[in-house]
Amino acid sequence: MEIARPLDIINQSKGKLVIVEMKNGRSYKGKLLAWDAHPNIVLEEVTEIETNTKYPWIFLRGDNVSCVKPVE
Amino acid sequence: MEIARPLDIINQSKGKLVIVEMKNGRSYKGKLLAWDAHPNIVLEEVTEIETNTKYPWIFLRGDNVSCVKPVE
Amino acid sequence: MEIARPLDIINQSKGKLVIVEMKNGRSYKGKLLAWDAHPNIVLEEVTEIETNTKYPWIFLRGDNVSCVKPVE
Amino acid sequence: MEIARPLDIINQSKGKLVIVEMKNGRSYKGKLLAWDAHPNIVLEEVTEIETNTKYPWIFLRGDNVSCVKPVE
Amino acid sequence: MEIARPLDIINQSKGKLVIVEMKNGRSYKGKLLAWDAHPNIVLEEVTEIETNTKYPWIFLRGDNVSCVKPVE
Amino acid sequence: MEIARPLDIINQSKGKLVIVEMKNGRSYKGKLLAWDAHPNIVLEEVTEIETNTKYPWIFLRGDNVSCVKPVE
Amino acid sequence: MEIARPLDIINQSKGKLVIVEMKNGRSYKGKLLAWDAHPNIVLEEVTEIETNTKYPWIFLRGDNVSCVKPVE
């Protein structure tokens, strides 16, 4: 894998399943729909992992994001 | 669904029911009335979810917002 | 209700009773006297809700504000 | 009372007794000597309220300030 | 060892195994793939140390990073 | 006492004994050697108050400083 | 000792043994290799004090640094 900047890995994940972990301990699994440089992130077809609650979408505020990782 | 930037999902939710979760653990359900880039958010016909308290409106400071999600 | 930006709801509340909740869990009820874009907020005829202590005024630092809501 | 901006209430309190509450839970009572826009605050003839310790002055860093209120 | 600025040590570690510790206590071991000035960091062939979970990559938000150290 | 801005009280304390309290609860007593606008602070002939440990100097990062007060 | 600005004490410590305490309570002892204005800090020949773990180097993110002090 070769990327120039960290956000490139997010760019390459558009439409794929990812898990976003928040600083407050919550984790969300969903299809990566949109993001920006903070990165504020929008997932669709979302599952809140701890509670298994489903949402059509979620907006995650970038400054509360801790990490993003792929779902295999 | 197709959006260009994360805040577009908020823009498309004007007047719809959403839940806003704050970093301090509080959650508010209400009709999305106004927002900005932080995003500071104003909901109307609000219910504080944990206590079931009702308010005609609430101003939520953007830097304490963790996520926004739709009510189905 | 129709407002363009979130702070408009604060602008429309000048002189009215509001409750300001701080990130550290304290809540203050009082008449909205002044505010700015952060929003730093000054209330007058204030009651600290948890302790029922009264103050003629209080200056609340904006970055510790979590939400503002009306008193009905 | 009529003020234009929140910091005006601090400006009008120069030389008067105020209580400053910090985000970390400490509270200081003293005569308001100096402040700036953050607001960093210097009190003189100070009492740390929880411990009743006295100091000739104290410099309080603005980003740890939660609120300022008058002593009657 | 001689470096001019702190990030140079990160620059010299491209493609090597490092451990990144986050402020929230999580630690990730992996090959350093990309970083920027914050430093946002992308690792590949990642192990979350506490849980021994494996990921092909992880994006770590810079403002939650506490330290980076080599794996020997 | 008359000062124009909060940092003037720090300026007037050069070479004098002060106590610096940090947001994480640690306190340091020492001679005020240098400071800047944050205020990052360097003390010399330092005692960490809780443990009574002595250091020839300490650099204290400004954004973790909560308050500065004189030692009488 | 005479220094003009707080970071000068760090400048004078290049190649010397220092202890860096982080806001999250971890402490690292090592030879000061590089730093910048935040201060992000790189130590070499490092010992994590609580666990006595050794590393050839560590990159410490400046905004998690609480203080720097010399090892005598």
Automatic annotation (TrEMBL), chains A, B, C, D, E, F, G:
Residues 5-72 form the Sm domain. It comes from the Archaea. This is Sm domain-containing protein. InterPro entries: LSM_dom_sf, Sm, Sm_dom_euk/arc. It holds the Pfam family LSM. It comes from Candidatus Nanoclepta minutus. One of its GO terms (molecular function) is RNA binding.
